Amino acid sequence: MITAEQRSMNKMPYFTGYGEDDRKTARPASAAVAGIIGNNGNTGNKLSEGEGPVEETIEETVGQPFVEAPRMTCRDVNVWYGDKQSIMDVNIDIGKNQVLAMIGPSGCGKSTFLRCLNRMNDTIPVCRVTGDIILDKLNIYDKHIDVVPLRAQVGMVFQKPNPFPKSIYDNIAYGPKIHGLVNNRTELDEVVEYSLTKAGLWDEVKDRLDQPGTGLSGGQQQRLCIARAIAVRPEIILMDEPCSALDPIATATVEDLIDELREQYTIVIVTHNMQQAARVSQRTAYFHLGRLIEVGITDQLFTNPGHRLTEDYITGRFG
Hints:
It is built from 13 helices and 11 strands. The protein is of the alpha/beta class. It has a single domain, classed as Rossmann fold, CATH 3.40.50.300. The strands form 2 sheets. The protein has a 7-stranded mixed beta sheet, with helices on both faces. The protein has a 4-stranded antiparallel beta sheet with strand order 3-2-5-6, with helices on one face. The chain is globular, with a radius of gyration of 20 Å.
């Protein structure tokens, strides 16, 4: 569970101004993230003057991009939009029952890469993806792969809540019905209750399941979308800035939910909020201009980054 002390860091201004020695003035931002990490027992590893990253080039990813027994592996992934290359030679493993946070400046390619993981980029005619993304020993970009069951296995929660214009019940029931996951109404009722319970929404809506999902609050709608993804029995859940449109209270609820869901699911989340990445993830990947710069254990990456670009970003020198 994410503590109130950790979440209170969200109230701190990350960084606003720079003097001549912007390395010194950037320290408060780094310390803000380090303070969050410190609650996990790593307060002694903060960035200090004279210490820090030594890698300056961006040809190879630094850190720990690979893990033992990964749930999904990505090798030499490249993405083009027409003639423009958006993702360049990304290699990374996604660990089982972990939250992987992907951070980086706007336009760095993190959301594009996220959409590669369940072939959502297929919906963009000018988009072309090369490389291997392996799930269950199969390359998901093999021409024989059916994307419909793939997207059930690798679910997606988008930046803006997008409930169907249906009842709360039918929002959850739609996926299991079209995928043939239930045989009768009793089983469907069980799936709806289970999914809403896992999303922390059942107690709030159990007496109004016939009402429109669009009538819920923003935070409730986002949890409804998470429940909808859970209903089709995914193994991996992708989240593209799921809290960016939510207020702080709803954000806290979704973050607690993410922390609980990782016990059963592998989660990949894109976020611009570095404090959020520090709170909810076990591993963090930093993207810059289409390249994967660094991957590491979250507390290590935020307190002792291995690349200059990573440090510059987390300390607020650009972003």
